[in-house]
Amino acid sequence: MEEKLSLQEWIDLAETKKISFGDFCIDFQAKELEIDKKVLLERMEDMLHVMEQSVAIGLTGIASMGGLVGGNGKKVEVYRSESTDKSVVGSVMSKAIMIALAVGEANASMGRIVAAPTAGASGTLPAVLFSLAEARGFSMGELGKALIVAGAIGMVISSRASLSGAAGGCQAECGSAAAMAAGAAVELYGGSPEQVGQAVAITLKNMLGLVCDPVAGLVEVPCVKRNAGAAAQAMVAAEMALAGICSVIPVDEVIDAMAAVGNAMSCTLKETAQGGLAVSPTGILLANKLFAKVES
């Protein structure tokens, strides 16, 4: 059995070295991959460009393969342009919602995305990164460093729990994506390594137990909208962490708890479309219609 990674250990090392968690992660990853730091950051920027393309695809109003989602990212874009004084959540969060939906819809239409950490949760991280970049003018280089932080968080979660909805429910997909985005946001705003860990812990605690119940087994309903919800959770957790609020339960223990919850979760709630919204009357009706089309 592979030894579990520890986010807290990495955080402590960064604090001891008196460097940001982003700098620690860049050093660590460059050594692990045996590549120059500049090359590593260039790879991250390449991924960011793919994310931008995914947003653009989604904002065309493209329909999903199953026809259950499509055009909602575009709706938010139009709403933002016409109702600047009516937003419930403000410009930054509204932008994040738009991006999360757009990327989720791009994925559901078989468009190119960056699995961050999975295709079904691919809208959360770009939603947080790009909405904050617009608000604060972060450069692609700064976003690239934040992306490396997000990746490091995902590595630990994968090591101690899972990133798969089939293994751990949607807490493992959208929950992990939100935790990665929260840590990345704290890094962008100059938070300490310890605050990065607090943001991760708070996010996962708030999303603990989220089930994976895709209607008709497609990554469309409720998956796309959950990306927007996950982006919101990430921002809430980052704000709390930057304010100095701490999780009572340490970050590694929170991740371990997520693993335990995932293991205890019924298989009907782990991507099998046999529970939750997938077996609601409307969910079953939609699935039957889709399967009838396939058979005909």
From TrEMBL:
Cofactor(s) listed: [4Fe-4S] cluster
Family: Belongs to the iron-sulfur dependent L-serine dehydratase family.
Keyword presence, Ribonucleoprotein: no
InterPro entries cross-referenced by the UniProt entry: Fe-S_L-Ser, Ser_deHydtase-like_asu, Ser_deHydtase_asu
MF term (GO), any: L-serine ammonia-lyase activity
Protein name (Swiss-Prot/TrEMBL): L-serine dehydratase
Organism name: Pelosinus propionicus DSM 13327
Pfam family, one: SDH_alpha
Reaction(s) catalysed by this chain's protein: L-serine = pyruvate + NH4(+)
Pathway noted in the entry: Carbohydrate biosynthesis; gluconeogenesis
EC number: 4.3.1.17
Listed PANTHER family: L-SERINE DEHYDRATASE, L-SERINE DEHYDRATASE 1
Alphabetic keyword roster: 4Fe-4S, Gluconeogenesis, Iron, Iron-sulfur, Lyase, Metal-binding
